Amino acid sequence: MKRYGHGLVIGTFCPPHAGHHHLVRTAEDRCEALTVLVCTAAGELVAARTRARWMAEVHPRVRVVRSVRSVRTAGRVDAVFTSERHGDRLARAFGAEHVCVDPERALFPVSAAAVRKDPVGCWDFLERPVRAALTRRVAVLGADPAATTLARSLAERYQRRGGVWAGTRWVPRCGAAREEQVARTGAPVLFCAAGTARAERHLWLLAGPQDGGLPGRGRKVVLRGAGSPALLGAAVDAVDTFLGESWGLDGPGAGRW
Question: In whole angstroms, what is the distance from residue 57 CA to residue 132 CA?
Answer without folding.
Answer: 13
